[in-house]
C-alpha cells in the first residue's frame, strides 16, 4: 500500500488545489445544468405534443400527411367497437381585417382560465388573445364558408370561457377559439381533420377494431396512441435538439476552459514540489509510483469536485426552471426537473476524465525529476525554451490550414468546413500564445509606465514565464473570443435582416385612409388633421408625414394605391439612407411583396397609368406597405391628373429607436381605428427580430460568462502560485523599500495586463470568426455587412479589466503580507 | 542583559536597546535575541559573528527595520524604528539602509543597472549621476550594466548588490553573509570592496558572518551566542577572532 503518502499531498496542498477544484466544479455544474435543462425541455415537449394522443387506443391519420374529410371521420365514429372519437380540425374565419382560428377541443394540454369548454353548438371558448376583446357571454359574429369556398351567412357564437391552449397548440399563435365539432362543421362544411383519436369500447379488441377501421377507411394510417405519440415527438424535437446542441456546446467550452486551468494548476503545484518529489525518488519511489501519486490526486480531486458540481448544477437547473416558468420562454416545460441517470453519471465521468487528462502531462513531467534535485537548493523553475520552434511551426501550420478551411467554407457555404477550420485555427492560436502573449504584454506594459517601478516589475513578472502567461491567458481567450463572435455575429445578422426588412417594407408604420368609389377608379379620402396631430403626439413616435395618395392602374393587373414620397419626406421617415438616395423622378418604389405580385425586380420597367396619363417607371426596392407604390410627387401629380383623384390619404410614421414598439403600435392603432384608417409597417417585424437576436446574445453571453468566471479563477490561481514562488523576491523588494501598496499595485497591473492581452486577442479573433461565420451562413449573393456593437465591445473590455483586477485581490493580499525579513531568513 | 559600550566621541549609526525577539508561543517559543543592547558606530566596519542560531541575523534584521522586535527598541540614526508604521519603515529603508545578502540579492527580471537604481526608482528619486558612475567604476561594473543577473557570475552579482547598497549613500549598509556563496578569491574581492566603502567613502557597514577570515576585515567584531552579546574584539585579525570563538564555545 502506497496510498498513504500518495494522498498526503492532496490533504496538505488542499488550498493550492482549490482553484482547480473550483474550475472543475463550475465546468461540471454547467454540463449538468445543460443536460437537465435539455431533458426537462424534452419531457415538457413530449407532454405538450403527445400528451393527448398517448392515451388514445387508436389514432387515424391520412396517408402521407394528407388530412381526413368529414365523411371519413363520420365513418370512423360509425365503425362497430368505436366508443368515442376526438377529431382535431381547425378553420380560419374572417373577422374585421384579419382571421380568427377556430379549432377542436384538444384531449389534453390546455388550461381552462375562466368559464367552461364549449358543449353546445355555437358555443366557443376563446384564447387569451381573443379574450382581450371578448369576455364570457359576449357574442362573436363570424361569416361561414360555403361549399364553393365563398363567404356564406354569418353566425353568432357565444363565448362560454377562456382557455390557455398550451404552448404547442395551433391557437397559441394568434386570436382563436375552441368549438365543438358541430360548430366547426357549420363554419366550414368542407372541414378537414388532422387526426382522429379513437376510444375502443369496453369488450372490443383493439386489434379487431384496428383491422375493421383499416378496411373501412382505405388511404388512412392507423396507429396505437403510444406509436402516434412517438412519431409526433420525433417530428417535433428538432427544436430541443438545437437548444440541446447549443447548451452542450457551451458546456464543452466551459469544460475546455476548466481543463486549461486544471492543467495549469497541476503544472505549477508540481513545479513547486520538485524538491519533495525528488526526495521521494531519493528514498526509493519509482517513476511510475510518482506518476501514480499525481494521478491518484487528480482522480480524488476530480471526483470530489465533480460530485459537488453535479449537485450545484441541478440546483441551478431548478432555479432556471422556476425562472423560465415565471418569464415564459415559449418552450413547454414539464412540472418538475427531469434528472435522469445520464445527467448524474455523465458529468461526473467527464469531470474525472477531464481532470486526469489535464494532469497527465504535468504528471509525466513530474516523473522526470532527478533524485539529485532534492539535494540542490531549489531554483525558481523557468519556462523551457526547448520545443518553441516546433510549437511555433505547428501553430503557423494550424492557423494557416484553419484559415484556408474557413475561406473554403465561406466560399462554398459549407458550415461544417467553416467550423472545423475555426477550431483548427484556434488551437493554432492557443499554441502560438506562448510567442504572442509576452510581446503583447510588453506593448501594453507601456501604458503601465506611470505606475513606476511596480508597473515595470509587473510587466517583467507577467512575461517571465511565457508558457504560464500563455496558459493563463488561454482560459480567458476562449471565453472572450466566443462572446465577441456571438455579439458581432448577432449584430451583423440583425443588420442584414433589417436591411432585408427595409427592402420589403421601408417604413415603420404607414396608415392610409379608406377609399371611395368615384367613377372608374377609387379615390382616397383626405386624412383628418386632428388625427395627424394626435399621431404625432403618441409616445415613441419620432416623425409623422402626411403624403398625397392616388389610385393608379399598374400594368394590366388592376388598381393599386400610390403615394408621393419626395426625398425630403423620405429622409424624415425612412430608416435607410440608401433608400432615400435611390429616390428620383421616373422611379417607382415597390416592396418585395409588390415586386413579386407584379413579377418585376429592381431595374425593371413598370407601366403605371392614371387619369392624367401613363408612364414607364423604373422599379426600385422600397416598400410603403398599405400606402402603396412610392412615386415622386411630380410623377404622382401628372399620372393622377391632379384634382380630386389625389388626396392627402396616407400618414407615414417613424418611431423612436428607443420606442416600446408594442405600446406605441397599439396607441397608433387605436387612433387609426377610430379614424377608419388601416395601418401596416415593418416596426413590429423589426422589433421582433431585434428582440430575438438580443435575447440570443444575452443568453449566449450569460452562458459564456461561465467560461470567463473559470478564467478569472485561472488568473487568480496562476498569480497566487507565482506569489508563493516569488516569496523571496517579494521579501527582497520589501527590504529595498517597496511599500505594501506598491506591492499590491504590482500584482494588480500584472493581472490586468494578462487579462487585457487575452481580451484584445479574443476581440480580434472573435470579429474575424464572426465575419467568416456570417459569410458562410449567408445565402449566396447577399452582401456581408459587418456590424461591431461598440457598446458591447466596451462592456467586454470593462468586464475583462474588472476580472483581472478581481483576480489579483487575494494573491496581492498574500504578497503584501510577506515580511521583508522572513523571506531572507529562509536563505 | 549584556551590554557593550561604544567608544566615547563616536556618533552612532544604529543602536539596540534591550532588544528581544521571540518566535512562536508557549512551549514552542524560541528566543532568538535576548535583551541585547549595542551601538553601531558611524563610519566603521562592524562584524557580527556567532554560531548558527546565535541570533546574529535576527539582530541585523531588527537594526535594519526588516523585522519588528518582541520587546526593546532599535534606532537607525535618530529614528526609533519600533514606533514606525510599515509604510514609514519601508520609506526609511529606501533612504537610509543598503543591503547585501548572501544570495537572491537581485531581481532576475531587471538588468544590473535597473537593479542598482531600484531603491532610487522606488523612492521616485533620481540618481546622483557622478556618484553612480564613481561606484560603478570602482566596482568594475561598467561593462555589465545591461546584463541580467542570470548572465553574471556570483562575484559580479554581489558587486551589483553592493553598488545598489552604495548608490543611495545610506546611513548603514547591512551585509548578511555576503561571501557565503562565493569561492575564497571572489569572497576576498567583495570584502575588500566593503572595506573600501568604509575607508574611502565613509560608509557604515554591518556584516553578519560566521567566517573568521571575513570578520577579520572589520574594525570591530561583536560575538553573539544564544541570543546575547558574548564578547567584542576591536581591530581584530583572524587569529584573534578564532580565539574569541573558541572562548565563546567554552563559555557556552
Tally of helical segments of chain A: 26
Mean pLDDT of chain A: 79
Largest sheet of chain B: 6 strands, mixed
Query: How many individual domains of chain B?
Result: 1
Class from helix and strand fractions of chain A: alpha+beta
Query: Residue ranges of chain B: pLDDT <50 for 5 or more in a row?
Result: 5-9
CATH-derived architecture of chain B:
3-Layer(aba) Sandwich
Number of strands of chain A: 22
What can you tell me about this protein's structure?
- The complex is a heterodimer of chains A (827) and B (252).
- With 827 residues, chain A is α+β, with helices and mostly antiparallel strands.
- Chain A has 26 helices and 22 strands.
- In chain A, strands 1, 2, 3, 4, 5, 6, 7, 8, 9, 10 and 11 form an eleven-stranded mixed sheet that branches. Chain A has a six-stranded mixed barrel with strand order 15-16-20-17-19-18, surrounded by four helices.
- Chain B has a single domain (43-66, 83-251), classed as Rossmann fold (3-Layer(aba) Sandwich).
- Chain B has eight helices and eleven strands.
- Chain B has helices at 56-63, 86-96, 112-123, 129-138, 154-167, 184-201, 212-215, 238-251, and strands spanning 2-3, 12-23, 30-41, 45-49, 71-76, 79-80, 97-100, 172-176, 205-209, 220-225, 228-234.
- In chain B, α3 (112-123) packs parallel to α5, α4 runs antiparallel to α5 and α5 (154-167) packs parallel to α6.
- Residues 5-9 of chain B have low confidence and may be disordered.
- The chains are: A alpha+beta (827), B alpha/beta (252).
Task: Walk me through the topology.
The complex is a heterodimer of chains A (827) and B (252).
Chain A: H1 3-12, H2 18-54, E1 58-62, E2 68-69, H3 70-78, E3 82-95, E4 98-104, E5 111-115, E6 123-126, H4 128-131, E7 139-145, E8 151-164, E9 176-179, H5 181-187, E10 192-200, H6 206-216, E11 220-224, H7 225-236, H8 238-272, H9 274-282, H10 287-327, H11 341-366, H12 388-412, H13 415-445, H14 452-463, H15 466-504, E12 509-512, E13 515-518, E14 521-524, H16 529-536, E15 541-554, E16 559-564, H17 567-573, H18 577-582, E17 587-590, H19 592-598, E18 605-610, E19 613-621, E20 629-631, H20 633-640, E21 647-655, H21 661-674, E22 678-680, H22 683-725, H23 727-736, H24 740-777, H25 790-816, H26 820-825
Chain B: E1 2-3, E2 12-23, E3 30-41, E4 45-49, H1 56-63, E5 71-76, E6 79-80, H2 86-96, E7 97-100, H3 112-123, H4 129-138, H5 154-167, E8 172-176, H6 184-201, E9 205-209, H7 212-215, E10 220-225, E11 228-234, H8 238-251
Parallel strand pairs in B: 1-3, 4-9, 4-10, 7-8, 8-9
Antiparallel strand pairs in B: 2-3, 2-5, 5-6, 10-11
Helix pairs in contact in B: 3-5, 4-5, 5-6
